[in-house]
Amino acid sequence: MSSLTIYLAVALASLVAIAYGQQGTSKVICYYDSRSFVREGLGKTNLADIEPALPFCTHLVYGYAGINGGTNKLVSLNENHDLDQGKGFFRQVTTLKRKYPALKILLGVGGGADPESSQYLSLLESSAGRISFINAAYTLVKTYDFDGLDLSWQFPVVKPKKIRGTFSSFFHKIKKPFTSDDVIDEKSEEHKEEFTALVRELKNSFRHDNYQLALTVMPNVNSSLYFDVPAIINNLDYVSLAAFDFQTPDRNPKEADYPAPLYELPERNPESNVNYQVQWWLGQRGPASKIIVGIPTFGHCWKLGEDSGITGVPPLRTPKEGHPEGPQLKVPGLVSYPEACSKLTNPSNAHLKGEDAPLRKVNDPTKRFGNYAFRLGDPDRDYEHGMWCSFEDPDTAGNKAGYVRAKGLGGIGLFDITLDDFRGTCSGDKFPILRAAKYRL
């Protein structure tokens, strides 16, 4: 073998090793909302259903635990489902590490699942409350062999903002100081300091056992109000930005628009996109290696009406009531990926009419905002069955993973894997969104 051949072989091996090493540093945080277990019909999932996803995940966040309002302790929100004296899902999920030893399994806290939302602020205000929470958290993590805790803390969310043109936006800025009050938490500075203390105290209690501590920034939470990044970042293993649900039928019942754009859209709130959220954390001295970009596995649908126009180009005026729901989740305005893909034109539905008629998909050639699909209603019947949906799919998820790679960020988070196509009904592949995003890393 010539020296040149040996050199080329070594160089190629080095490049492969470097590429593999870079890929290996990227986290793939898979969120598993255990409430999916109690859904009925097609939406129900169990641990066997999610197992095919686990080889693609570096972390699994099992959610959600919550806060007992009387004791400030971290508790299961469904003891019959989670604890050993019930069905023992805490134990079952952490036992998966025997089969997937590289997988880190964290217990998620809050995540929008806890009805005691006000308790997340009042707990912070009491040092005794924080101690009670920390002691209970440590006990739960240790007893059930979790690898740590993910703080999907339920801070108040910002109010939705109406989309305005240039002139309207200028006029609104002039009159806003005299006509509106956007304060959502008058004690936000105190809560920021107290949350910093909670993170520090939690990490100290976890340090001896080498448990991980992570933060998930929930959708529409203003990070500048609650997170002192330089003070907390060294005590966190990663920060997952749930950068989606900027527009939803609940928050914006009269206006349909992209729920999770990658970049800013013209004449929109400049903060309502993935890139802004990432850049804010980086600008606050958050290390890129700890920033995780959250990718939804679902979408949102609005009903179309007579004021919606015929082009389908967002933003669209929509009727306030009657947002459609899918057969899997049965939640008005919310569709999982398999529900969304089943609405698109395919050989089995191309001839159908009315509420079963397919939606026409419009792709985003810029790869900046997302795809959408729609069908116009019958103008002679009050635009009955008109619908506009925007949802994540393997292509858009891959674009976001490509963004993560290009920016040198820490990885991606899938919210959540039970809403991906875990049965493989869309294309034959199970978990296509997770797969597409993982491969782009």
Question: Quick gist of this model?
Answer:
The chain is an alpha/beta fold and 441 residues long. 32% of the residues lie in helices and 17% in strands.
Strand order of the largest sheet: 1-2-4-5-6-7-9-16
The overall pLDDT, averaged over residues, is 90
Give the distance, in angstroms, between the N- and C-terminal Cα atoms. Answer: 35 Å
Global structural class: alpha/beta
Radius of gyration: 23 Å
Helix content: 25-40%
Beta content:
15-25%
Number of helical stretches of at least 4 residues: 14
- Overall number of strands: 16
Coarse shape? globular
Secondary-structure element series: HEHEEHHEHHEHHEHHEEHEEEEHEEEHEH
Question: How would you characterize the overall build of this protein?
Answer:
Belongs to the glycosyl hydrolase 18 family. IDGF subfamily. One of its GO terms (biological process) is carbohydrate metabolic process. It is a single chain. By secondary structure, this protein is an alpha/beta fold. Helix content is 32%, strand content 17%. The strands form 3 sheets. An 8-stranded parallel barrel has the order 1-2-4-5-6-7-9-16, surrounded by 6 helices. It starts with a helix and ends with a helix.
Features:
alpha/beta; five-stranded antiparallel beta sheet; 441 residues; eight-stranded parallel barrel; globular
Mind sketching the topology for me?
Elements (H helix, E strand, L loop, with lengths): L2 H23 L1 E7 L13 H4 L8 E9 L6 E3 L2 H4 L6 H7 L8 E7 L8 H4 L4 H17 L4 E5 L13 H14 L8 H20 L4 E6 L5 H4 L2 H4 L5 E4 L13 E2 L17 H10 L7 E6 L1 E6 L12 E2 L16 E3 H6 L17 E3 L9 E4 L11 E5 L2 H14 L3 E5 L16 H9 L1
Parallel strand pairs: 1-2, 1-16, 2-4, 4-5, 5-6, 6-7, 7-9, 9-16
Antiparallel strand pairs: 2-3, 8-11, 10-12, 10-15, 13-14, 14-15
Helix pairs in contact: 6-8, 13-14
